Amino acid sequence: MLSKMMRRAGKCAAVAAAGLMMMSAQAAEPIKIGSFLSVTGPASFLGDPELKTLQMYVEKINEEGGVLGRQLELIHYDDVGNASSARNFASRLLRSDQVDIIVGGSTTGATMAAVPLVEQAGVPFISLAGAVVITTPVKKWVFKTPQTDRMAAERVLGDMKARGLTKVGLISGTGGFGSSGRAQTLEVAEMMGVEIVADETYSGSDTDMTAQLTNIRNTDGVQAVLNFGFGQGPAIVTRNYNQLGIDLPFYQSHGVASDSFLELAGDSAEGLRLPASPLLVPDSLPESDPQKEVVQNYKAEYEARWDSKVSTFGAYAYDGLMLAVRAIEAAGSTDPEAVRNALESISGYVGVTGEFNMSPEDHNGLDADSFRILEVQNGEWKLID
């Protein structure tokens, strides 16, 4: 009898030990953060700082003990700004790599190509792209960190109205970002009582926009001009605007909110305004601003690590990663549904881009006021509002 009891106890101990070993093994498994970014190609000014940011902070978090006692593993691919490649890489992340969450998608096209796969797989996805279509209408598994193009339109047109400018010439790129920005600007303008008196477009391959800008200049009553686009196009528009000597207030969208744009546009950018993150003017923020410390720290750490100027696009990746970590910690696991629910419940998170307040009705969590209006003065960004 005693021998049987001892054998039974031995079996129980073995089972318990096996269970502990299994739990230990699971605890030791890394949390997989997947990403597809436009690190090279025409949108590399987005993807390059995004990848550098993810790499830097994954390393930092791991050095500090990881998340839930587990290390983070960053699995990333370069989609070269191609939507088809982005879809293929998203599929690989979900099926082969079996990531726990995706933080990526530099462009709207790349993001939207991946959305159906993410929704089908039921894995949380935090996009780094700007168009309103990404989170409107709300998609169960999709979130985003940049403000929407609609918010940018609201902020720009609001600033114009404050200056008494209500008749606007619009020029925009024909890519996903520019097309969406144009559509949102037209809608917002009608709501705000602003008249779009000229409406011109350019393609990504255009190298001169003089004809479009001449049409806008010759339009009766035009009081200001807004360009909605990203990449090389807006810099060309800015230079052409200056060459034509157009003496009207000029605005760009948040798609060019970086020091690299100033380098491309040169002296032609003087006086233009745009909506942007306070990251470009951190020292101009008052001490009472809750974003000041976050923004200053990110800027200092990024520039010290990479010996290059910080970018608002990299900040989108910073916020995306921190939101992912915050949700995983709140969920207490990497269970997809629990992490998704935690993301949707995030409130009062102060990031570099703004203060995020997610909800079942809002998977972006920002408002138009998270944009600051900046103006180029003496070749540098100046905080206006």
UniProtKB/TrEMBL annotation:
Entry superkingdom: Bacteria
InterPro entries xrefs: BCAA_transport, Leu-bd, Leu_Ile_Val-bd, Peripla_BP_I
Domain Leucine-binding protein: 30-377
UniProt KW keywords: Amino-acid transport, Signal, Transport
Signal peptide: 1-27
Gene Ontology annotations of biological process type: amino acid transport
Family: Belongs to the leucine-binding protein family.
PANTHER family attached to this UniProt entry: BLR7848 PROTEIN, LEUCINE-SPECIFIC-BINDING PROTEIN
Entry protein name: ABC transporter substrate-binding protein
Organism (species): Marinobacter salinus
Lineage: Bacteria, Pseudomonadati, Pseudomonadota, Gammaproteobacteria, Pseudomonadales
